[in-house]
């Protein structure tokens, strides 16, 4: 019992260490800033500029967050404050179900619905021509994938705001909306931000669904209608090739390490915020 | 505001609707009863039985292995460690692990595989998915065990039981519905994940025979089928998607159903 | 005076600086009901828990002193704590049925101490349920979840569960405070009947209940043992001013 627990406590470090070891090779050939900020990607020549991939990941994630945050905030407020409990009981299971749908299925759906949508409707609307396989497509699909995370955590946070403060607000003559806006959301904001941080780290590392709709072109995207090549997709697409070039393999492991560090950072930040929120309401 | 909720629920329905509509026509019996014959990916006959069974073996094996690790960890954290700093640190670590994308687990496992000189196989697929599932199942179990009322534990100790007896006979009984949910939740996540098995389980057109052979998995089957330029095969990808969805939904339903049945003895 | 059931010498309990029990020394009479009274927070529950070493489970608790049963100190290092707890049954304030059937609740104690399933165990369960006057009410539904019983029945079930391990001593921590008057009365009558076989230590903050039940009284105030004595004398002529004030209802 104890040994299993110790293992899980240290596991993160073990993973980081292993990836770092693999990444050593490519780290020794180029400096960090060269790796992170140049765009030339020619594995055969030993050129590994990660910049386009980093930008690709960031832009897809940013779009997803931009879409998800307002929708989820409103939805969580509705569920926590306005919905009668029967409706809440009916709505929560489907929303939780969204979290269970496998990544590849989301990818399929994206290819079927979102990509053509962008190609045939949204891009022409913006006066651009696009294959549909784009940052926007990735963002769309990712947004839906993170809905359940943000909503369920925020719902909990809003519901845990003690009723005394609500009552106090009403007693002063505030309307429901005023109470929600100025009291509940304000008190719950920290928790909501934590939920967003968690969702961000999920979106950042999401692989399959994004890979299937984002185009996988190793260039910095100049608009949301351009294709991009996020880090997870990079790793997934090239695992076959990397077997032949040790430097290539090392570079991909570096990509995995970067993912690990970013995700861990946001997870830790979110966790620390949530702990503070819990402490305050205890 | 309800509009936003509508959007959320609506997208769920949209996902299901589109996949089902597109994939249903291709969902034939042969899809689930046959393995790919020669030229399957070029449009010829066969099915994805290899992937279905492969996924079930892989996810099943991983779930069992994870359970064997998760339950002791969750019990240890709650019954033996309590509020110690070690427990907080472990929970913190588990939270971080929970957020790590499956592709990182895949990459990590791959590194280890190279180090020990192993080939992609069912065994390594199981190991990788176990690592991926571990934080998910443990965290969920931890939550359920935490809320077991302390007076139950006290009552058990007052009768003279040891910590282990209390943990196994009282706490797990009370937490049983939640534990089952945790297990099935992890199973659902594990069977649907492609990135963790991409490097580590390999792929094959035959049925799984040995734990040391590469094995086909449903998510990868879907991925490969949609990657071909041939429309019939792409159609089959959608049908395979339906199959995967059905498995995940089944897990969810079984979880809800058994929770209800297991609540019988739980003390409120 | 009756032979001492429990001998306590210089019992001190501290929680992180807070001195919960101060130098408590007393002889608790055997096979009598000893009632511990005092205002809330004066250490009554801590006192009970130090007797069966449930206090060990509280983090940061420091205990010193001796608690002797039959000449054996329960805090002696060589002692098996599960054995001690078996010899002392605890009935808590809020009934806490285990998440099992009625039968399994009563059988839990005997089973963990080695009893095998069979007619002997069945008999034990039936006897205990008879003693607490619950048998007739539940005999047809022993396999039903214990959580389905009413609160009063649950408390009696907990008592059956406690006596199933054949303790010598019963520790009762305000066992009627969660019950309606009728059920509370039943529990009191039950305890009066049980005292011929068990040494009972009963904590309460209801003075009328103390008067009804006590053979011997202990008054705890702010962790200190202020006064103790046979019930009649205690209530009629308390010697300490604090005792007098408490009994007269000035505080607590």
Describe this structure in words.
The complex is a heterotrimer of chains A (282), B (268) and C (252). With 282 residues, chain A is mostly helical. Chain A has helices at 2-29, 32-37, 51-82, 85-100, 103-125, 135-159, 163-171, 176-205, 208-213, 231-237, 239-242, 246-281; strands at 41-42, 47-48. Chain B is mainly alpha-helical and 268 residues long. Chain B has a single domain (54-263), classed as MetI-like fold (Orthogonal Bundle). Chain B has 12 helices and no strands. The radius of gyration of chain B is 21 Å and the shape is globular. With 252 residues, chain C is an alpha/beta fold. In chain C, helix 3 runs parallel beside helix 6 (151-164) and helix 4 packs across helix 6. Chain C is built from 10 helices and 10 strands. The two termini of chain C are 30 Å apart. In chain C, the strands form 2 sheets. Chain C has a 6-stranded mixed β-sheet with strand order 6-7-8-3-9-10, with helices on both faces. The chains are: A mainly alpha (282), B mainly alpha (268), C alpha/beta (252). Chains in contact: A-B, B-C. Chains A and B meet through helix 1, helix 3, helix 4, helix 5 and helix 6 of A and helix 1, helix 3, helix 4, helix 5 and helix 6 of B.
CATH class assignment of one domain in chain C: Alpha Beta
Number of domains of chain A: 1
Report mean pLDDT of chain A, rounded to a whole number: 83
Can you tell me the CATH class of chain A?
Answer: Mainly Alpha
Structural class of chain A: mainly alpha
Sketch the topology of chain A as an H/E string, one letter per element.
HHEEHHHHHHHHHH
Can you list the strand order of the major beta sheet of chain A?
Answer: 1-2
Biggest interface: chains and residue counts? A-B, 70 and 72 residues
Give the strand content of chain A: under 5%
Summarize the structure.
Chain B is mostly helical. Chain B has twelve helices and no strands.
Provide keyphrases for this structure.
heterotrimer; B: 268 residues; mainly alpha; MetI-like fold; 12 helices; 74% helix; C: 252 residues; alpha/beta; Rossmann fold; 10 helices; 27% strand; globular
Topology:
The complex is a heterotrimer of chains A (282), B (268) and C (252).
Chain A: H1 2-29, H2 32-37, E1 41-42, E2 47-48, H3 51-82, H4 85-100, H5 103-125, H6 135-159, H7 163-171, H8 176-205, H9 208-213, H10 231-237, H11 239-242, H12 246-281
Antiparallel strand pairs in A: 1-2
Helix pairs in contact in A: 1-12, 3-6, 3-8, 4-6, 5-6, 6-8, 7-8, 8-12, 10-12
Chain B: H1 2-23, H2 29-33, H3 49-81, H4 85-99, H5 102-116, H6 122-146, H7 150-158, H8 163-174, H9 176-192, H10 195-198, H11 218-227, H12 231-262
Chain C: E1 4-15, E2 18-29, E3 33-37, H1 44-51, E4 61-69, E5 72-73, H2 81-87, E6 88-91, H3 102-112, H4 119-131, H5 135-138, H6 151-164, E7 169-173, H7 181-194, E8 199-203, H8 207-213, E9 216-221, E10 224-230, H9 231-236, H10 241-247
């Amino acid at each position: 019992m104890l040994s299993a627990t110790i293992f899980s406590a240290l596991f993160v470090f073990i993973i980081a260490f292993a990836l770092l070891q693999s990444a050593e090779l490519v780290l020794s050939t180029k400096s960090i800033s060269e790796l992170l900020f140049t765009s030339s990607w020619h594995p055969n020549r030993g050129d590994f500029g990660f910049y386009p991939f980093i930008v690709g990941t960031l832009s897809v994630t940013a779009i997803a967050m931009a879409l998800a945050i307002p929708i989820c905030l409103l939805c969580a407020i509705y569920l926590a404050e306005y919905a009668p409990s029967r409706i809440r009981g009916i709505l929560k299971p489907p929303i939780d179900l969204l979290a269970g749908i496998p990544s590849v299925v989301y990818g399929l759906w994206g290819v079927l619905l979102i990509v053509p949508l962008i190609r045939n409707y949204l891009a022409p609307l913006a006066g651009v021509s696009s294959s549909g396989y784009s940052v926007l497509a990735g963002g769309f699909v990712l947004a839906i994938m993170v809905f359940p995370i943000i909503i369920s955590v925020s719902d909990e946070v809003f519901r845990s705001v003690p009723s005394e403060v609500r009552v106090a607000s009403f007693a002063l003559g505030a309307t429901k909306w005023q109470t929600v806006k100025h009291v509940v959301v304000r008190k719950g904001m920290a928790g909501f931000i934590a939920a967003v941080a968690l969702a961000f780290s999920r979106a950042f590392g999401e692989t399959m669904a994004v890979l299937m709709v984002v185009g996988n072109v190793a260039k910095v995207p100049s608009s949301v209608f351009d294709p991009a090549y996020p880090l997870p997709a990079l790793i997934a697409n090239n695992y076959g090739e990397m077997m032949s070039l040790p430097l290539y393999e090392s570079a991909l492991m570096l990509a995995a390490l970067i993912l690990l560090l970013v995700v861990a950072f946001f997870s830790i930040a979110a966790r620390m915020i949530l702990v503070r929120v819990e402490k305050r309401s205890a | 505001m309800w509009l936003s909720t509508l959007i959320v629920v609506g997208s769920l329905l949209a996902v299901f609707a589109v996949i089902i509509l597109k994939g249903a026509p291709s969902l034939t019996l042969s899809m689930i009863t046959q393995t790919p014959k020669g030229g399957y990916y070029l449009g010829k006959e066969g099915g994805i039985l290899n992937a279905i069974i492969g996924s079930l073996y892989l996810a099943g094996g991983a779930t069992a292995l994870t359970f064997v690790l998760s339950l002791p960890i969750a019990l240890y954290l709650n019954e033996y460690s309590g509020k110690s700093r070690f427990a907080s640190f472990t929970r913190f670590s588990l939270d971080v692990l929970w957020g790590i994308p499956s592709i990182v687990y895949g990459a990590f496992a791959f590194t280890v595989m190279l180090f020990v000189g192993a080939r992609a196989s069912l065994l390594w697929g199981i190991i990788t998915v176990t690592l991926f599932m571990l934080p998910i199942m443990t965290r969920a179990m931890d939550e359920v065990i935490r809320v077991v009322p302390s007076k139950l534990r006290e009552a058990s100790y007052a009768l003279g039981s040891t910590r282990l007896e209390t943990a196994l006979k009282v706490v797990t009984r009370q937490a049983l519905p939640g534990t089952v949910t945790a297990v099935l939740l992890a199973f659902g996540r594990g069977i649907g994940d492609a990135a963790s098995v991409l490097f580590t389980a390999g792929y094959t057109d035959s049925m799984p025979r040995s734990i040391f052979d590469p094995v086909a998995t449903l998510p990868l089957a879907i991925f490969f089928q949609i990657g071909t330029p041939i429309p019939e095969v792409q159609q089959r990808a959608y049908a395979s998607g339906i199959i995967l969805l059905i498995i995940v939904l089944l897990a969810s339903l079984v979880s809800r159903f058994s929770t209800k049945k297991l609540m019988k003895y739980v003390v409120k | 005076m009756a032979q001492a059931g429990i001998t306590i010498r210089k019992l001190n309990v501290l929680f992180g600086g807070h001195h919960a029990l101060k130098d408590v020394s007393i002889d608790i009479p055997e096979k009598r009901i000893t009632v511990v009274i005092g205002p809330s927070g004066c250490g009554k529950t801590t006192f009970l828990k130090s007797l069966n070493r449930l206090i060990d489970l509280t983090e940061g608790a420091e205990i010193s002193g001796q608690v002797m049963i039959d000449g054996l100190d329960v805090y002696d290092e060589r002692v098996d704590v599960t054995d001690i707890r078996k010899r002392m049954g605890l009935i808590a304030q809020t009934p806490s049925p285990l998440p099992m059937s009625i039968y399994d609740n009563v059988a839990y104690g005997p089973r963990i101490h080695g009893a095998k399933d069979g007619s002997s165990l069945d008999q034990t369960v039936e006897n205990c349920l008879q003693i607490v006057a619950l048998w007739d009410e539940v005999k047809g539904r022993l396999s039903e979840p214990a959580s389905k019983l009413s609160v009063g029945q649950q408390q009696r079930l907990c008592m059956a569960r406690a006596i199933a391990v054949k303790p010598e001593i019963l520790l009762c921590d305000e066992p009627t405070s969660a019950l309606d008057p009728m059920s509370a009365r039943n529990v009191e009558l039950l305890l009066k009947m049980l005292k011929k076989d068990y040494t009972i230590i009963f904590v309460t903050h209801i003075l009328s209940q103390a008067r009804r039940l006590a053979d011997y009284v202990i008054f705890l105030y702010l962790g200190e043992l202020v006064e103790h004595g046979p019930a009649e004398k205690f209530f009629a002529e308390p010697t300490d001013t604090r005792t007098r004030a408490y009994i007269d209802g000035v505080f607590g």
